[in-house]
Amino acid sequence: MCGIAGILDPAASSGADELRSRADSMAATLEHRGPDDTATWVDESAGVALAHRRLEVVGRGAQGRQPMLSRSGRWVVSYNGELYNVPALRTRLESEGASFRGSSDTEVLVAGLERWGLADTLHRVEGMFAFAAWDARTRRLHLARDRFGEKPLYYGWAGGQFAFASELKAFHALPRFDAVVDRDVVAQFLRLSCVPAPDCIYRGLAKLRPGSLVTVEAGTRSAMLPDPVTFWSAEQAIDDACRLPPLDDDREAAELLEATLSKSVAARMLADVPVGALLSGGIDSSLVVALMQQHGDRPVRTFTVAFVDQAFDESTSAAAVATHLGTDHTTVEMLPRDVFDIIPRVPEIWDEPFSDNSQLPSLLVAQVARRDVTVALSGDGGDELFAGYNRHAWLARVWRLAGPAPHRLRRGVGGAMRRLPPGAIDAVATRLPSRWQVRLPSTKVEKLGRVLEASTVQDAYDTLRSHWEDPAAVVLGAGGQPAVPLDGRNGSTRGWEADDITARLLRSDLMTYLPDDVLTKVDRAAMAVSLETRAPFLDRDVFEVAWRLPARSKVRDGTSKWMLRQVLDRHVPAPLVERPKMGFGVPMGSWLRGPLRPWAEDVLSPASLNRYDLLDPEPVRRAWQLHVTGRRDLGDELWDVLVLQAWMERWSSPSAGGGPS
User: Fold this and answer.
1) Which residues of 262-295 are buried (b: 16+ CB within 10 A; e: fewer)?
2) Residues whose CB falls within 8 Å of the CB of residue 42, separated by 6 or more in sequence, listed in order
């Protein structure tokens, strides 16, 4: 795994030393992504410079050094990622006359570009990547990002030149970079706790969407962002998979799924450095670890986080799974004091506002894992492919029962539910029979109230994905926010059956929530400590199997990820993993009422909120009072603002290039 950066000066007026200096400065901000080596390649006549920071994982040594030139010198590549089908690609290329000096996947990628061209190479490679490829023959710079969005890539015009980088902080190293905050994007962040691609917090910059390619020609002087081209569409791939014969036989489907996922796991275990796994004790990570144990010749190193609050703690289940599978397991406990250590680092690590609070344990477990391994496999992607989130299992059921009721009636009932004090709900829930008790009852009642208030399934999905319900009212000068579409074609839900609702939720989560939230969280947390993470579920063959499964194989009798559970049952006793979906969040609500309260009160004071002329203090202060008095649980919403304030403190100083407009 690595960090990449570079520039293309349209006037080609900068000398080689100046081009190199600028690219070097950008790369220096990305040292955490690649602490093992750094290099920069420059073509003064074209005004282009490509920089690279290297984390050595496969093909270590000088033969894997980047930026890397092709044999003919036509292609120069600065690449961040891992390709998992290198053996097959290498064999094919050698049969066509290519030869190799080393064993790095970068060399295979460069040889593919030389032999097959850009489009065919992108179609053939399997893996996670973001790369810049300079074509000296056509004098064009190409930027590409992997299919699922595992690796980040920002680009745009900065200080009169076209620039790109793995992280935003690299742009601040450029002279005359005007870091103007986009207020509409800030509002989008407060709604989703992340900034969705292609948007960027700064005007004039963008994030490349998954499966996309953008091209800039030398000499281009337009300040307009180039239009991306899609080389792989999740929407089209889903449709293609759904046209294949469905996997109706449960036994045969389980056999195919296990074999396909096992192959993906094996490919992602190949490395020249120690490999481990992040084990939550849930379905996805437990299955990944079980398959890793089959492919390894020694116990897998596994890592998890523990919480004192049992409503958020999965460490006991993770330890039980680890014991059953025989892994070498490590548990790290997260306490409120750990948050105080991490908070100052959040805006540096997530240098674009990001406030999914599971970022905190993600960073902590990455730090611990990095002491023993350089690569860690995870279960990311399993929820989006096999219906693992609570909304996948119950939204369709709720809508089927409540949807026909008049909207006015539903809105009234839902509003009443949302006004119930969380403490009272939790107190009543503890007195219910054990078979009726659920985890975090007040949170579930509040979410159900939101759904009942919604006028359509699209509205229901929006409200389940949203933190601040009306963020434009919080951000001064912001406009309205568009809906997150349930699929890539339209937001209509009229006449949908329950299975259709679940399928569309999966489509949207795969194309939005997964890359913009989950994978952003994992990439930044892991790369902050130079840990490479790999996700076996994010494989084209696994993807195809998932979408060939009928809906009843994903959610059956109210049970989510039904087919994955059938496969896992072959390796881990069901009682060890049979529990409600917990995720990887933290008890932020109670922490903000308790140990974090003095800090939060200071950051959310009217004086602090007025400091940047960005937020309206009144709705924020109202939310704070509702939260600390226990009338509402607004921990997520308040964490959004706290993170935003910390981000502004770090990046809006004059030395950062300016503040919000």
Assistant:
1) bbbbbbbbbbbeebbbbbbbbbbbbbbbbbbbee
2) 16, 19, 20, 23, 48, 49
Please report, to the nearest 10 degrees, the dihedral formed by the alpha carbons of residues 533, 536, 539, 545 taken in order. Answer: -160
Topology adopted by domain 2-232 = Glutamine Phosphoribosylpyrophosphate, subunit 1, domain 1 (3.60.20)
Q: How far apart are CA 535 and CA 537, in angstroms?
A: 6
Residue 494 φ then ψ, to 5°: -65, 130
What does pTM read for this prediction? 0.93
Please state, in angstroms and as integers, the Cα–Cα distance from residue 422 to each residue in 150, 437, 446, 591, 628, following that order. Answer: 37, 15, 9, 15, 12
Nearest C-alpha neighbor of 535 from the set 128, 123, 83: 128
Dihedral of the alpha carbons of 537, 355, 532, 66, in degrees to the nearest 10: 110
Q: Residue 199 and residue 189: Cα distance in Å, rounded? A: 10
- Domain positions in the chain are 2-232
Tokens of 437: 């008790």
Q: Are 110 and 86 in contact (CB under 8 A)?
A: no
Nearest to 26 by CA among 48, 4, 9, 1: 4
Q: What is the mean pLDDT of the chain?
A: 91
Whole-angstrom distance, CA of residue 387 vs CA of residue 557: 13
Q: For residues 294 and 435, what is the distance between their CA atoms, to the nearest angstrom?
A: 36
- Residue identified by tokens 């300079």 is 134
- Using CA atoms, how far apart are residues 77 and 142, in angstroms rounded to an integer? 10
Distance CA 51, CA 78 (A): 7
The structure tokens listed for 428 are 């009543």
Of 608, 632, 592, give the one whose Cα is nearest residue 357.
592
Mean pLDDT of 363-388: 97
Q: What is the pLDDT of residues 253-284, one digit of tens each?
A: 999 999 999 999 999 999 999 999 999 989 99
State both tokens at 625. Answer: 């009072």
pLDDT at 42 over 70: yes
**What pLDDT, on a 0 to 100 scale, did the predictor assign at position 491?**
41
Angle CA(336)–CA(373)–CA(533) in degrees, nearest 5?
A: 75
> At 275, phi and psi to the nearest 5?
-120, 135
Cα(579)–Cα(487) distance, integer angstroms:
30
Question: What is the distance in angstroms between the CA of the first residue and the CA of the last residue of the chain?
Answer: 35
